[in-house]
Design a protein that fits this description.
InterPro entries: Homeodomain-like_sf, HTH-type_TetR-like_transc_reg, HTH_TetR, MftR_C. GO terms for molecular function: DNA-binding transcription factor activity; transcription cis-regulatory region binding. It comes from Mycolicibacterium fluoranthenivorans. The protein has two domains: 55 residues, Arc Repressor Mutant, subunit A, CATH 1.10.10; 132 residues, Tetracycline Repressor, domain 2, CATH 1.10.357. The mean pLDDT is 88. By secondary structure, it is mainly alpha-helical. Helix 5 runs antiparallel to helix 10. It is globular and about 50 Å long. The longest helix is centred in the first third of the chain and has 27 residues.
Amino acid sequence: MTTTKGLRERKKLGTRWALSDAALALALERGLENVTREDIANRAGVSLRTFNNYFAGKYEAVAFRQIDRTRQSLAVFRERPAGEPLWSAITEAMLAPLEAEGVADVRPTPEELLVLRDLLAVRDLRAALTKDLFADWVQAIAERTGTDPVRDMYPRLVAAVVRAVGETAMEAYANADPPVAYTELLRRGLAEVAAGLPER
């Protein structure tokens, strides 16, 4: 039976997604530098106060969808079979949210790529994307590999590599010509890491 708390949390998550979608749509229309918090709140049909309750600024709002996907990936990673090779588990976990949303094979338009390149150049947006969940990934990797998240370098190295592959795949995605699906680049990057980054 669904609890009142569970319904409340789902409603909050829905509001966050609505604000993030509004922020991204407006950024695509006019560039994020020309978008205000008030614009985002109006597009999402909520008050500015509601926006401020959920996000510190427009960069966090745009970044939320990727942060939430990372959170979902972490949950999937924790549920992967214990005997599955580590990098296979990480790959499937990273791809799962995109596949669930039905956007795994989506290729961006040239206009969307222009906006994406502008967004990736913004330091505040990069900070919003990278500040959350790293410690949680370290903990999850340590649990899976039987290592200590504080004393052993291994779980932190793996988590750092996962983050680096995600960022590198996003950079390649934003600059691809012709456009390619982000999942294709993400899968390729993780496969290269799993193979030990062989020389070319």
